[in-house]
Amino acid sequence: MDWWPAEFEPYGLTHLAVFVGWTLTIAAIVTLGRRWRGTPREAALRRACGVVLLASQTWYVVHGALEPNGFEPAMDIPLHVCDIGAWIAGIAMLMPSLRWAQTVTFFWGYALTTQAFVTPTVKVGPADAVYWLYWLQHGGLVGTAVYIGAVGRYRPRPRDAAALLLATAALLIAAVPINATLGSNYVWIGDTDPDSRTVFDVLGPWPRRAFLIVLIAHAVMALVWAVTLLVTSRRPDPAIRAVPSQENAEAAA
After folding, report:
1. What is residue 9's predicted lDDT score, i.e. its pLDDT?
2. Stated pTM of the model
3. How buried is 135 (Cβ within 10 angstroms: 0-12 exposed, 13-18 middle, 19+ buried)?
4. Residue 53 near residue 143 (C-beta atoms within 8 A)
5. Which tops the pLDDT comparison, 206 or 80?
């Protein structure tokens, strides 16, 4: 694959290809999901997406542990939002009755992971496996969020806020002592600047940057919540019927 770029160039042709490719892929999967909603075909499609997401995430972790440079605790622990979110997204696709998994995937996917498409931190190009794993993780998480809303008809309810806040708080609480011990930047709240430019560069030095990141993340999730309610306010809530229909489809399969 010598003809494939060895390095990823943000805002270049490779970046454009990723954006267009994932847009078309997500649109195609969601279109099929909506067409097959409530049937064994949709259940099979959803399970297949969940398996692919979990398998690629497992490969990502193993690859990081076995890479030639060795496992680097400050870089290779799967503790970013997208790392944990990808696992949860896979579970949400395999087990649609888990409301908390649907909630976390929906909001982390829409509100937080989309940032990776604006300022990606991957440095290697298509010639390296990390490139594919990085985009499978981030694209898969965003795509699952879209699928949950468009096909699963997810819409937030007041009690979902507790699950979302608890999951986000648990990740932040886990990252703080690890960042302090390793000098790492997990969840982007550590006292370390990322090697690649991100939207967080304008937030100033640490620790102000860390507090602003947490504040902005929660504000964006609240915005996604409000927009979702606004868009779906004129439609009847199908949540009570959605889970039984999916389970019946799986039983029929």
Report:
1. 86
2. 0.88
3. buried
4. no
5. 80
Structure tokens at 205: 């030095």
The 3-state secondary structure of the chain reads CCCCCCECCCCCHHHHHHHHHHHHHHHHHHHHHHHCCCCHHHHHHHHHHHHHHHHHHHHHHHHHHHCCCCCCHHHHCCCCHHHHHHHHHHHHHHCCCCHHHHHHHHHHHHHHHCHHHHCCCCCECCCCHHHHHHHHHHHHHHHHHHHHHHCCCCCCCCCHHHHHHHHHHHHHHHHHHHHHHHCCCHHHCCCCCCCCCCHHHHHCCCCHHHHHHHHHHHHHHHHHHHHHHHHHCCCCCCHHHHHHHHHHHHHHC
| Residue type at position 190 | G
- The confidence score (pLDDT) of residue 2 equals 57
Q: Are 228 and 155 a contacting pair, CB within 8 Å?
A: yes
Q: What tokens does 13 get?
A: 């042709």
Instruction: Identify which has the larger pLDDT, 243 or 34.
Output: 34
User: According to the model, what pLDDT value does residue 243 have?
Assistant: 42
Question: What is the per-residue pLDDT across 4-25, written as a single tens digit (0 to 9) for each?
Answer: 777 888 888 889 999 999 999 9
Neighbours of 127 (CB within 10 A): 13
